[in-house]
Amino acid sequence: MSQGENFNISLVSNPSTGFGWWSQFETEYLSLVDSTYIPGNQEAGMVGVPGKEVFTFNAKKAGETYVIMLYLQPWENGTIGQRQIFPVNIS
């Protein structure tokens, strides 16, 4: 991707379980522009249906870096449900 360009990371999430996605990244190369939750399709009376969390980042500086996404319950002292690493190459 080019410097100044935005990109999205979209991950399945179910906040009714207390879990949510948290991002870790090098602020020298990236900035977090926005994060939002998009509910899943659910029929009337259904609860606990997963949706997705969408994180929008901006590529600030040319180089190679990564975004680490952690799916966790913040109050559980670092217990991580999932970890995903996304390499980012900025030209």
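Second entry:
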Amino acid sequence: MNVPVFSGLQKLEFQERPRPVADPGEVLVDVALCGICGSDVHGYLNGIMIPLGTVMGHEAVGTVVETGNGVTEWRAGDRVAIKPIPECGECPFCRKGQFSLCVEAFPRAIGISPANDGAFARTVKVKHPKAMLFRLPDEVTFEQAAVIEPLATSLHGVRMSRFRPGDTAVVIGAGTIGLGVLQFLKLGGAGKVIVLEVSERKREIARGLGADVVLDPLKEGEKLRETVFGHTGGIGADLVYECAGVPQALQASYTLVKSGGQVLLIGINDKEVSIQPFFLSLWEVELKGVLGYYDEFDHVIEFLRRKRINTEVMISDTIDLAEIEEKGFRR
């Protein structure tokens, strides 16, 4: 297989790799689609979390083509979504259902180290199928299923928050994660959702998905806090979901939430950020980190089966693997 290998900052090099073989207990999946995650881009640009020699790609769906000895749950032809970070099921975190915090999760994960090639390939090896594979219903297309992984992160962020029906929320960033958060908040009965996004195209998508207020934070400038407070009864939002993963978003986030409110850090930010802890204490604001997902894959698949989530607008382009660097990472 000819696969793109991370070979240096802002450099992918196509290399010939042998097609993987399914050893006992393993499954091979022919990849139908694999999304480019923000964390892939961070790794490509800055080397964060992605060692040299890695085949990236972890937002994948496809078809089982081979099973190793001892695999009874799966057979060739099964359509699947791949959860890329498999839990061990035995550590203290797994016993509490906190699967993304599993002590073995990242060493087992695909697409973030040379030990486990990711799904930017024609075929990917799944070493832990019980934890990693999820069957796709006939009603869910590969195109819809391609965003299950980021939607699981979006749903996890909402479930980890103190959200209640009727709450006001600010969503910073209308990329895939932010648009997912927006849709789950609306489905959950949010009173008002304010979306902050610098891209005009993404602002229009957010409006189409039901955002009550959509603002360009660059245009608002120093008036951003005043504008958001004007839309939230003068006290700020109950919740802020930071989905952009840039320093400015984090710096703004805790100034937009009400006293006693909560900020969820969902976007991946690899830069140092200057904040003022005085205001966190003064306003009793909680900053809460969010990583991946626990059991959200099943829930997202059911949402898709029931046609409750609009995924079509969340996919900007479909490109061939051979063009992944030029049209994907460098666009």
